[in-house]
Amino acid sequence: MDKYVVFGNPIAQSKSPFIHTLFARQTSQKMEYTAELAPADGFKSAADNFFSAGGRGCNITAPFKEDAYQYATQLSERAKLAGAVNTLKKLDDGGILGDNTDGEGLVQDLLLNQVELAGKRILLVGAGGAARGVILPLLAQNPAELVITNRTLSKAQQLAELFASFGSVSSAAIDTLNQPNFDVIINSTSAGLSGQLPGLPESLIKHDMVCYDMVYSAQITAFNLWARDLGAGKVVDGLGMLVGQAAESFMLWRGLRPGAKQVLRELRRMLQ
Ligand code: ATR
């Protein structure tokens, strides 16, 4: 049976085995997908062991996405630009392809939620690894503009420069954003993990807009609660992005696109 695994540290919280097992059932693929805790400094030997035992592919979660980037012998363009790899695939010639499906997962989930991106003005909040991973797929949707803002402005400026040749992308200081000019605001910061808000002006929120929080939780996230209370038309959390990135990895490994909706419903029920 073809073997797949997700590596992380910690890993007990990972929903990936659940998601991929449902995908495999849905598409009648004979495969096994498990979770494995790799030691903090031991990604390389864990991956070596897995692939030399015949493993076909793996997902990589924190803190190993940069180790996986180094491990790959070939990189997709989106992985190169993300500077991080969340999916590895053993190639027929013995090489290891590194890809990053996080951004496509976000885009697919936005589209599933009927959120138009083409021609729209998007604000991306945060300039860490999570932000960097989604910029190229967002620009590929041809938004009118993608503005990156961050508590530390210089990091937003660096990201805007890095992606300048791929579309209309710029940076702006948080305190200069006081007009409700955006159709979609995407929160990629880790502020919510400690119950904090990223510090956006309230005046950005309007009724005909969408706010997307890349994190998720059983209850509404801090950012989405803030946006909803200020009257945002729609708020969406990142559970669908998790399913979307998994679907894209599955597609890379198996050549089949599984359906996200049913899996997302089951996952949401499990979270409650
Ligand atoms: P990740 O890989 O999840 O993106 P990261 O690289 O540590 O993690 O980046 C975290 C992001 O969340 C950064 O943009 C960070 O802002 P700074 O660059 O100014 O540090 C942002 N962030 C974290 N906590 C925040 C908070 N309380 N308010 C605003 N932004 C916050």
From TrEMBL:
<keyword id="KW-0560">Oxidoreductase</keyword>
<comment type="similarity">
    <text>Belongs to the shikimate dehydrogenase family.</text>
</comment>
<dbReference type="GO" id="GO:0008652">
    <property type="term" value="P:amino acid biosynthetic process"/>
</dbReference>
<dbReference type="InterPro" id="IPR006151">
    <property type="entry name" value="Shikm_DH/Glu-tRNA_Rdtase"/>
</dbReference>
<dbReference type="Pfam" id="PF08501">
    <property type="entry name" value="Shikimate_dh_N"/>
</dbReference>
<dbReference type="InterPro" id="IPR036291">
    <property type="entry name" value="NAD(P)-bd_dom_sf"/>
</dbReference>
<dbReference type="GO" id="GO:0050661">
    <property type="term" value="F:NADP binding"/>
</dbReference>
<dbReference type="InterPro" id="IPR046346">
    <property type="entry name" value="Aminoacid_DH-like_N_sf"/>
</dbReference>
<feature type="binding site">
    <location>
        <position position="214"/>
    </location>
    <ligand>
        <name>NADP(+)</name>
    </ligand>
</feature>
<feature type="binding site">
    <location>
        <position position="245"/>
    </location>
    <ligand>
        <name>shikimate</name>
    </ligand>
</feature>
<dbReference type="InterPro" id="IPR041121">
    <property type="entry name" value="SDH_C"/>
</dbReference>
<dbReference type="InterPro" id="IPR013708">
    <property type="entry name" value="Shikimate_DH-bd_N"/>
</dbReference>
<protein>
    <recommendedName>
        <fullName>Shikimate dehydrogenase (NADP(+))</fullName>
        <ecNumber>1.1.1.25</ecNumber>
    </recommendedName>
</protein>
<dbReference type="GO" id="GO:0004764">
    <property type="term" value="F:shikimate 3-dehydrogenase (NADP+) activity"/>
</dbReference>
<feature type="binding site">
    <location>
        <begin position="126"/>
        <end position="130"/>
    </location>
    <ligand>
        <name>NADP(+)</name>
    </ligand>
</feature>
<dbReference type="InterPro" id="IPR011342">
    <property type="entry name" value="Shikimate_DH"/>
</dbReference>
<dbReference type="GO" id="GO:0019632">
    <property type="term" value="P:shikimate metabolic process"/>
</dbReference>
<dbReference type="InterPro" id="IPR022893">
    <property type="entry name" value="Shikimate_DH_fam"/>
</dbReference>
<comment type="subunit">
    <text>Homodimer.</text>
</comment>
<feature type="binding site">
    <location>
        <position position="102"/>
    </location>
    <ligand>
        <name>shikimate</name>
    </ligand>
</feature>
<feature type="binding site">
    <location>
        <begin position="14"/>
        <end position="16"/>
    </location>
    <ligand>
        <name>shikimate</name>
    </ligand>
</feature>
<dbReference type="GO" id="GO:0009423">
    <property type="term" value="P:chorismate biosynthetic process"/>
</dbReference>
<feature type="binding site">
    <location>
        <position position="216"/>
    </location>
    <ligand>
        <name>shikimate</name>
    </ligand>
</feature>
<feature type="domain" description="Quinate/shikimate 5-dehydrogenase/glutamyl-tRNA reductase">
    <location>
        <begin position="116"/>
        <end position="191"/>
    </location>
</feature>
<dbReference type="GO" id="GO:0009073">
    <property type="term" value="P:aromatic amino acid family biosynthetic process"/>
</dbReference>
<feature type="domain" description="Shikimate dehydrogenase substrate binding N-terminal">
    <location>
        <begin position="6"/>
        <end position="88"/>
    </location>
</feature>
<feature type="binding site">
    <location>
        <position position="86"/>
    </location>
    <ligand>
        <name>shikimate</name>
    </ligand>
</feature>
<feature type="binding site">
    <location>
        <position position="61"/>
    </location>
    <ligand>
        <name>shikimate</name>
    </ligand>
</feature>
<keyword id="KW-0057">Aromatic amino acid biosynthesis</keyword>
<dbReference type="Pfam" id="PF01488">
    <property type="entry name" value="Shikimate_DH"/>
</dbReference>
<dbReference type="GO" id="GO:0005829">
    <property type="term" value="C:cytosol"/>
</dbReference>
<feature type="domain" description="SDH C-terminal">
    <location>
        <begin position="238"/>
        <end position="268"/>
    </location>
</feature>
<feature type="binding site">
    <location>
        <position position="238"/>
    </location>
    <ligand>
        <name>NADP(+)</name>
    </ligand>
</feature>
<keyword id="KW-0521">NADP</keyword>
<comment type="pathway">
    <text>Metabolic intermediate biosynthesis; chorismate biosynthesis; chorismate from D-erythrose 4-phosphate and phosphoenolpyruvate: step 4/7.</text>
</comment>
<feature type="binding site">
    <location>
        <begin position="150"/>
        <end position="155"/>
    </location>
    <ligand>
        <name>NADP(+)</name>
    </ligand>
</feature>
<dbReference type="Pfam" id="PF18317">
    <property type="entry name" value="SDH_C"/>
</dbReference>
<comment type="function">
    <text>Involved in the biosynthesis of the chorismate, which leads to the biosynthesis of aromatic amino acids. Catalyzes the reversible NADPH linked reduction of 3-dehydroshikimate (DHSA) to yield shikimate (SA).</text>
</comment>
<feature type="active site" description="Proton acceptor">
    <location>
        <position position="65"/>
    </location>
</feature>
<feature type="binding site">
    <location>
        <position position="77"/>
    </location>
    <ligand>
        <name>NADP(+)</name>
    </ligand>
</feature>
<keyword id="KW-0028">Amino-acid biosynthesis</keyword>
